[in-house]
Amino acid sequence: MRKIRLYIASSLDGYIARTSGDVDWLFTDADYGYTEFFAQIDTVLMGNKTYQQVLGFGEYPYKGKQVFVFSNTLPGQKDNNVEFVGGDLNEFVNNLRQSPGGDIWLVGGGEIIHYFLKHSLIDELILSIHPIILGDGIPLIVKDASLQTSLKLKDVKTYDSGLLQVSYDL
Questions:
Q1: Which of 70, 112, 120, 168 is the most exposed place for a label (fewest CB within 10 A)?
Q2: Rounded to 5 degrees, what are φ and ψ at 71?
Q3: What pLDDT is stored for residue 146 in this prediction?
């Protein structure tokens, strides 16, 4: 069965983006294991707000990958990059996990991460913690007492930039 991996960055205070969705604070001075991770996945999942933000980055970053965007308003539609999915996400994700292929990257954003956590659909979390406090923004984890989840530490990497990367199995 294919693994769903949440590979994401956050500020020290737990935000994955500014309130506007901007991620200008992310370090781009090194690879931080991204190339190796990207080679292990062949499918990308994200919410529609995240996809709209990605479209503003310039060159499309997920070329060569199958990409599904979760949307309540565009299910069944496609564009040059992605297929939009709606309806019963549990059924869709479970079918996807059973299909042949490499690992699956859950990109974000906050709402879809919440859904995946709530339904125990994440197998691994790789979190790059940037040494910056934003004070406000889009939280990695939405406050919800029903999300209590135990994690098993797999690895910790430190970088001279101050970035800390932790990997957990869920």
A1: 120
A2: -150, 135
A3: 87
Residues of the chain with pLDDT under 50: none
DSSP β-ladder status, 124-130 and 164-169: antiparallel
Tokens of 9: 């960055």
pLDDT (0 to 100) of residue 75: 84
pLDDT recorded at residue 41: 97
Q: State both tokens at 58.
A: 């310039």
Only one residue has tokens 């197998």, namely 123
CATH number listed for the domain at residues 4-77+103-169:
3.40.430.10
Neighbour count for residue 162 (Cβ, 10 Å): 12
Distance CA 159, CA 86 (A): 39
